[in-house]
Design goal:
Elements (H helix, E strand, L loop, with lengths): L2 E6 L3 H14 L3 E7 L2 H10 L4 E5 L1 E2 L2 E2 H6 L7 E6 L5 H6 L4 E4 L4 H25 L10 E6 L2 E6 L5 E5 L2 E5 L4 E4 L3 H7 L5 E5 L2 E4 L3 E5 L5 E4 L4 E3 L5 H6 L3
Parallel strand pairs: 1-2, 1-3, 3-6, 6-7
Antiparallel strand pairs: 4-5, 8-9, 10-11, 10-14, 11-12, 13-14, 15-16, 16-17
């Protein structure tokens, strides 16, 4: 896979050398930009979907760790580059994928890129596997796709799901989660569990229904006191759970 990367290095000569090495010896790296300061580096991180950041440790007005502290929810891997080996412990504490010392050894650079590529490939495979609708729920768990990966929920924790255009709001006892998938996606994913589509906008966990109110379609009251309308066309399907 191709890795989108940036290089943050304040010394122009070092920046040029490492940039040339990356272009020449790391064909799977797409170097989308180079920065000479923490401020420039943060701007590149903000405006690009990155897999890898080559980061010089010592820079004017701060260091690499100051930069990373400003990106708490990062999904990219980091390769630290420095002339000093005493930063190794700090690099590990900041979850560095690799640690390169200057002058750059080409073999070590290639190893660093290969390592990050392997990690990213495995992450992508795992994400594709668990987010595949055909996989549905595994051992009573449901995976929710998110921008930086996925979240795993116990199916029994879900009270109901509500459609919101091409998004779905998933309601738990104490919080709501917004997911960029349609309600139909979750209807298919939860087909093997006790979830009923009671309305074009609602999918409910039938085990959480504590009361049914009669009417044209009627309504259900859930264990948390929430009342939801039942459409006339869905009434029969819902009631079949209570035969």
């Amino acid at each position: 896979m191709t890795l989108n990367a940036i290089l943050v290095e304040d010394e122009a000569n070092s920046r040029e050398i490492l940039g040339n090495y990356i272009h020449k010896y790391c064909p799977d790296v797409n170097l989308v930009g180079m920065a000479a300061s923490i401020k420039e580096g943060l701007e590149l991180i903000k405006n690009n979907d990155l897999d890898l950041v080559f980061l010089d440790v010592e820079m004017p007005f701060g260091n690499a760790f100051d930069l990373l502290d400003q990106v708490p929810d990062r999904s990219f891997e980091t390769v630290f580059v420095t002339a000093y080996d005493h930063y190794a412990k700090d690099a590990l504490n900041h979850h560095a994928a690799y640690y390169l010392t200057k002058p750059i050894n080409i073999d070590e650079l290639v190893k660093a890129v290969d390592y990050v590529q392997e990690v990213k490939t495995k992450e992508n495979r795992l994400q594709e596997k668990v987010l595949n609708t055909n996989a549905k729920s595994i051992q009573g768990k449901l995976t929710l796709p998110q921008q930086d990966g996925f979240q795993v929920l116990n199916v029994e924790e879900i009270l109901y799901c509500k459609a919101d255009d091409n998004y779905t709001e998933i309601y738990l006892e104490t919080k709501k989660i917004l997911v960029s998938k349609t309600l139909k996606y979750f209807e298919d994913a939860l087909v093997e569990f006790h979830f009923a589509r009671i309305h074009k906008s609602y999918l409910v966990n039938v085990t959480e229904v504590v009361k049914y109110k009669k009417g044209k379609g009627g309504s259900v009251v859930l264990s948390n006191g929430k009342e939801l309308l039942v459409s006339a066309s869905k009434k029969k399907d819902l009631l079949s759970y209570f035969d």
